[in-house]
Specification:
The complex is a heterodimer of chains A (134) and B (758). Chain A contains five helices and five strands, in the order βαβαβαβαβα. Chain A is an alpha/beta fold. The chains are: A alpha/beta (134), B alpha+beta (758). Chain B: Keywords: ATP-binding, Chemotaxis, Kinase, Nucleotide-binding, Phosphoprotein, Transferase, Two-component regulatory system.
């Protein structure tokens, strides 16, 4: 996992810190580029398990996770995070190509805050992240 | 990283996904239909689709969508996977490859209409053997699949001014219009909802706001800025289905009250009523508690003072006043206590330590890790390296003063060694990250060569420096390709030789005497030494009358420009390879050796250092200079007898090493040292191996030590000096130069470039 220093264009003091969880390297790179250029501080994990381990000791404002991932998928990640006191109220957005109602309900029941379908529009994604990050 | 770079990552992923898909389909063709195989195929196509959409490759995206639909049906057993269908899928996979090529810009977008029709037909039972009944069912489900709409995306369209996404105006008045009432609760805002977006979404569906219920708005003193007080009523056109509206509120759930037509308005739900609100209030109250001694009193004060509109911002931010007027005062009085007992209870639960604090980080007992910037870590390791040197200097100084055996020195030594070991461990990673990629490589090689190879792995938990791990995968890949391509025979040949038709590749790693040794072993045909020798002679690598030991013949395959593959295959055998492997390994400070038994197999052993920061070196003395010769270059050291030496011309001396002549280079002469021993028979000769210039014998006075050293760059502290790889500090505090063996030998054997600095 790497941390990108935010670009200087956003000088506002309250920078939103996002953890993106996606097993696809290109998607991670896309997200990093889109979010850092909008002034977010971006942390990345390659799957649910890595995200979970990292979140045990680190804080972010929002978690943005894919669904289909090896080791621990998005549903599992959300469920596990909701179990811990630290992340019970953490905003978690799902970003995935899946769009079936059944999957959406599963995510909602697991405790997801919102659902965004890939391919994402950068402006929309950043708006959603800002909104849920308070 | 720009968009192009990111696209490149995507194409690499495509390549992997295509391979996985092909691999899966091959397995299907061979009769494996289990869900894991089907899943792998599905995932491959699915991942290409995801990226194709993201990077705007529309043709690729729509083709993969079609392909994925069929695979999804197969996965869910809606369509039976017949051999005919497998063939069709293989065709589809080939076309997918063309599509990816086109997206990459190296080809035209292929004509996929015919095949897409076939794929669609297969979904509805078009492939002969599938019963029509299943086909119809799947046909229906397609529609459902494609109709699904998005949540946040749709909601956010309006916000970001995405004009194109607003839905078409609803003009049909045939169906009667209907009403929807909604009331966003406080939790809607708390949980990240955006009531404004819901309203806009309703409007974009053609809804018209008819009423806004304001009856519940409290007086200013009871006003909570995060609470929703309005109840909205929208009139929706009859053409809009109730489900479409309900879907907007999919994720709002209980955070927004909904009712339709003549139902009563959803009731007002105040934030104090929801559990989330309560915990929120408690959290804020506990946060605020240390700042104000009596939050309850303060809240009372504010209320009795009946705040004027210009009330200070602090009063709105104060948690107690937020709840005032809604929750009874008692509730806010309880809150801080409750929060405290809560967090304390948590801490005690997880760790029964006497000094339990209310720090919530303590409540997670799972293994903890900290991520550190690599540069910071390297600075630490560098510092530890310096510490080791300083300690050695101190020890030497004390020894000179006859304080060699003081107790504290021994303690310091132990501690520093401990610290060094731990610091090195920070950079260590298990080798499984390299081994883990091998199964895929073997499958890929298997499909290219038709050789099926079983993998056995030992010691994958062995740890190595991160940098070594990263740079190891290239030579490893090369060696494995070679083992499969040249080492392991085809199934027929293996059967004829009485072997299992399936070859076995063994990877083993172990830590041995401060190094990590990796064995790559195949059970193939072994190295045919006659063939290797003949080839080497043919390529002019050795002379015809060379008298080489079996071992030396094996080493020839590392010579530049050597290749024994009779035919150049797609996998390996273009004559580059083993020499690159060898130099890669040597760059890592490692060594590579071969053991081979003809007919039984070959083992390559890579001995690698645990870290790159510290190397092994031989400390030699030449006149008044101490120099370090990196051990990776050293083959052996010997003291020649006069008859082994042969003068060539006036300047050169050659040394006969078991029948081969190597040039003798005096380190003292090239470095300009004073008072060095001119006679090799009185000094020592260190036989070294170089890259591109064969072997050479370095003549020195004596070998004083063999030890680990920390490399200090000369460029950074002084300037580049030819023939010198860097410097290090010896135990006695003296700076010693590290010999750049390759450069020094090259300069010495080609007299035109005698430009070595002292």
């Amino acid at each position: 996992m790497e941390t990108n220093q935010p670009s200087a264009q956003d000088a506002s003091s309250s920078q939103v810190r996002v953890l993106t969880v996606d097993d696809s390297a290109s998607m991670r790179a896309l997200l990093r580029a889109a979010l850092t250029s909008s002034g977010f501080e971006v942390e990345q994990a390659e799957d649910g398990q890595e995200a979970l381990e990292w979140l045990a000791t680190n804080e972010v404002d929002v978690v943005l996770t894919d669904i289909n991932m090896p080791r621990l998928d998005g549903f599992g990640l959300i469920e596990k995070l909701r179990e811990s006191a630290l992340h019970a109220e953490r905003p978690i957005l799902v970003l995935t190509t899946e769009s079936s109602d059944e999957k959406k309900m599963r995510a909602k029941n697991a405790g997801a805050t919102g659902w965004i379908v890939k391919p994402f529009d950068a402006a929309k994604l950043t708006a959603a992240l800002r909104r849920v990050a308070h | 990283m720009n968009d192009d770079d990111i696209q490149q990552i995507f194409f690499v992923e495509c390549e992997e996904a295509l391979e996985a898909t092909e691999m899966g389909l091959d397995a299907c063709k061979a009769g494996t239909h289990d869900s894991e195989t089907i899943n792998a195929i599905f995932r491959g196509v699915h991942s290409i689709k995801g990226g194709a959409g993201a990077f705007g490759h529309t043709a690729l995206a729509s083709y993969t969508h079609c392909f994925e639909n069929l695979l999804g049906d197969i996965r869910e057993d809606k369509v039976a996977l017949t051999p005919q269908l497998t063939d069709l899928l293989l065709l589809a996979c080939d076309l997918l490859r063309n599509h990816v090529e086109a997206a990459r810009g190296s080809g035209d977008i292929p004509d996929d209409t015919a095949l897409m029709e076939k794929l669609e037909a297969a979904r509805s039972g078009g492939v002969e053997t599938i019963e029509t009944s299943t086909g119809e069912i799947t046909g229906d489900s397609i529609g459902d699949d494609l109709d699904l709409d998005l949540d946040l995306d749709a909601l956010l369209d309006d916000l970001t001014g995405d004009a194109g996404a607003t839905s078409e105006p609803q003009a049909e008045d045939e169906a009667p219009s209907w009403l929807v009432h909604l009331r966003p609760h406080a939790a809607a805002l708390d949980n990240g909802g955006e009531p404004l977006l819901w309203l806009r979404e309703l409007a974009s569906l053609g809804g018209i706001c008819e009423a806004c219920g304001q009856a519940d708005i409290p007086g200013l003193d009871g006003f909570d800025t995060d609470q929703g007080y309005f109840a909205w009523t929208f009139r929706m056109p009859g053409s809009v289905a109730r489900e479409d509206v309900a879907e907007i509120f999919d994720f709002a759930g209980e955070d927004c009250g909904l009712s339709y037509d003549n139902d009563p308005l959803p009731p007002l739900k105040l934030r104090a009523d929801t559990p989330a609100a309560r915990s929120n209030a408690a959290k804020e109250a506990s946060k605020a508690e240390p700042a104000t001694n009596a939050p309850v009193d303060k809240a009372k004060d504010i209320r009795t003072a009946a705040p004027a509109p210009e009330a200070s911002p602090a009063s709105t931010a104060s948690p107690a006043s937020t709840g005032a007027g809604i929750a009874p005062p008692a509730a806010s009085a309880v809150a801080p206590d409750k929060a405290e007992t809560n967090s304390e209870g948590q801490a005690q639960e997880s760790k029964p330590q006497p000094a339990a604090t209310s720090n919530s980080a303590n409540s997670n007992p799972a293994t903890q890790s900290v991520r550190i910037d690599l540069a910071k870590l390297d600075r630490l390791i560098d510092g530890v390296g310096e510490l080791v040197i300083a300690q050695a200097m101190l020890a030497q100084r004390l020894e000179n003063e006859n304080f060699a055996h003081i107790e504290e020195l021994g303690l310091l030594d132990t501690l520093i060694r401990d610290i060094q070991e731990h610091a090195m461990a920070f950079r260590a990673q298990p080798i499984s990250s390299v081994f883990g990629r091998v199964p895929r490589l073997l499958r890929e090689l298997g499909s290219n060569t038709g050789k099926h190879v079983k993998l056995e792995v030992f010691g994958e938990g062995t740890e190595l420096d991160k940098t070594v791990i990263e740079r190891l995968s290239e030579p490893m890949t090369h060696l494995i390709r070679n083992a499969v391509d040249h080492g392991i025979e085809g199934p027929e040949d293996r059967k004829a030789a009485g072997k299992n038709p399936e070859g076995t590749l063994t990877l083993a790693a172990e830590q041995k005497a401060g190094r990590v040794v990796i064995h790559i072993k195949d059970d193939g045909r072994g190295i045919n030494r006659e063939k290797v020798l003949a080839k080497a002679i043919e390529n002019g690598i050795v002379s015809e009358d060379a008298n080489l030991s079996d071992d030396e013949i094996c080493q020839l395959i590392f010579a530049p420009g050597f290749s024994t593959a009779a035919e150049v295959t797609s996998v390996s055998g273009r004559g580059v390879g083993m020499d690159v492997v060898k130099s890669n390994v040597r760059d890592l400070g490692g060594r590579i050796t071969i053991e081979s038994v003809e007919g039984e197999g070959t083992t390559f052993s890579l001995a690698l250092p645990l870290t790159l920061a510290i190397s092994d070196g031989m400390i030699v003395q030449s006149g008044d200079l101490s120099l370090v010769v990196p051990l990776t270059h050293v083959i052996e050291s010997l003291r020649p007898s006069p008859e082994d030496l042969k003068g060539v011309g006036t300047q050169r001396t050659m040394l006969n090493v078991r029948g081969r002549f190597v040039p003798v280079i005096s380190l003292g002469a090239v470095t300009g040292a004073k008072g060095w021993i001119d006679d090799p028979c009185k000094g020592v000769v260190v036989l070294v191996e170089t890259e591109g210039h064969g072997q050479a014998a370095l003549m020195v006075d004596l070998i004083t030590d063999q030890r680990q050293f920390v490399i200090k760059s000369l460029d950074a502290n002084f300037r580049t000096v030819d023939g010198v790889a860097g410097a290090t500090i010896l135990g006695n505090g003296q700076v010693s130069l590290i010999v750049d063996v390759d450069h020094m030998v090259r300069a010495a054997v080609s007299p035109s470039s005698l430009a070595i600095a002292a």
